[in-house]
Design a protein that fits this description.
CATH topology of one domain: 2,3-Dihydroxybiphenyl 1,2-Dioxygenase, domain 1
CATH class of one domain: Alpha Beta
CATH superfamily of one domain: 2,3-Dihydroxybiphenyl 1,2-Dioxygenase, domain 1
Number of strands: 4
Distance between the termini: 64 Å
Strand order of the largest sheet: 1-4-3-2
CATH architecture of one domain: Roll
Order of helices and strands: HEHEEE
Length: 82
Amino acid sequence: MNTQNQTTEMLPETSDFLPLHGTDYVELYVGNAKQAAHFYKTAFGFQSLAYAGPEKGVKDRESYVLVQNKMSIMLTKPMRTE
């Protein structure tokens, strides 16, 4: 008996309840955003697009946005607020 046919017989037809048409960016929380951005640029060929941090008036986080073709990632390090 073909296992693929058996699997499709057991599972009813379903529609995709949340179709994705694209992604704006993926945000990764890291311990050291500057070092992580350097790694992604060196190892995977990403290029810098934007930066936000204390020097730019953002006090609660430090973020680097990197791009490669149609892919964008944001590497964010939360800042301690006490």
